[in-house]
Automatic annotation (TrEMBL):
Record's protein name: PAS domain S-box-containing protein/diguanylate cyclase (GGDEF)-like protein
SUPFAM superfamilies associated with the record: Nucleotide cyclase, PYP-like sensor domain (PAS domain)
CDD domains: GGDEF, PAS
UniProt domain PAC: residue ranges: 97-148
UniProt domain GGDEF: residue ranges: 180-314
Coiled-coil region: none
PAS domain ranges (all copies): 23-68
Length: 316
């Protein structure tokens, strides 16, 4: 394929033909050797006219297979509006800026790419689109890891304070809509410091990870959340509960589960937990008030030597 151009066109037809051949050879070499994915598409039909090895290697298709497709065939339906906007940009601007999408690979997996395109005309007068395709798999993995680090505790892999705060905000909005209630638990391990000192730094970390797993195993999937707030403190969000008594029963079951011995390397470790409970909207209609009242309930449990739970206000 040769890109049509009238710039610096020699008057001698043979010289012009030689120039086109040289241009075609240069383009073909660049096209095939480029580490950047490149495609040529018929602007009218959307069918692929050419594809380089970078795209074939990433998607798993043979050249013949790929050239039997149009760009609609290997693009998931969710990108349909985006594809239509690209066509509008090509018509109005002669190009479209880089945007993210995916190609459907031969094995059914999705290949994440950033694609840009420019409208051209070949030597036969056919309108074509040259697509430039960048593999963004590593970039997305890096972004995902950064997001995980921003939202999850690195030790326990539980949501951190920021993420649980977002979820509590969502729970408040939902409860305001449907008049449901939810509870937050502030959970603290009793006498963790001497246990941590005895186990050492590594053993203490292992105990926290095992504690997180044990708490998580007791929660309802899809409705409840547990986060680590730092140290040996955890925050739990239980949505769609019916009564304060239900919240108290769940808290008691968690305390009972955490009182069972942990096997940390060669040592059997026994701990207990204290839980303070606040229920929306009875004990607050905003996060700050709910946190404060759950923490007050936790303090009352601690004053009574821990290993138990209390709902805010139930001890007055």
């Amino acid at each position: 394929m040769t890109i049509k151009t009238d710039r610096h066109r020699p008057e001698d037809p043979r010289a012009f033909e030689e120039m086109l051949l040289r241009s075609e050879a240069k383009f073909s070499t660049l096209f095939n050797a480029s580490p950047l994915g490149m495609t040529v598409v018929d602007a009218e039909t959307g069918r692929f006219l050419n594809v380089n090895k970078a795209v074939l290697n990433a998607t798993g298709y043979t050249e013949d297979e790929f050239l039997s497709f149009s760009y609609w065939d290997i693009t998931p339906e969710k990108y349909r509006d985006q594809e239509l906007q690209q066509l509008i940009d090509l018509k109005e601007k002669g190009r479209f800026s880089p945007n993210r999408k995916e190609y459907i690979c031969k094995d059914g997996s999705l290949f994440p790419i950033s694609i840009s395109g420019v409208a051209l005309v070949d030597t036969d007068g056919k309108e074509i689109v040259l697509g430039l395709i960048e593999d963004i798999s590593e970039r997305l993995a890096h972004e995902k890891e950064l997001e995980r680090l921003a939202l999850y505790d690195t030790l326990t892999n539980l949501p951190n304070r920021r993420l649980i705060t977002e979820r509590i905000g969502q729970a408040i909005a939902k409860s305001q809509r449907d008049r449901s209630i939810f509870a937050i638990f502030v959970l603290d391990l009793d006498n963790f410091k001497p246990v941590n000192d005895n186990l050492g730094h590594y053993g203490g970390d292992e105990l926290l990870k095992e504690t997180a797993l044990r708490i998580k195993s007791l929660l309802r999937r899809g409705t409840d959340s547990v986060s680590r707030h730092g140290g040996d403190e955890f925050l739990l969000l239980l949505t769609d509960i019916k009564t304060q008594d239900e919240a108290r029963r769940i808290a008691k079951s968690i305390c009972k589960a955490l009182a069972k011995p942990f096997q940390i390397e060669d040592e059997v470790v026994t701990v207990s937990a204290s839980i303070g409970i606040a229920v929306y909207p009875d004990h607050g209609t905003d996060q700050i008030t709910l946190f404060r009242n759950a923490d007050k309930a936790l303090s009352r449990v601690k004053e009574e030597h821990g290993n138990g739970c209390k709902v805010f206000g139930s001890y007055y």
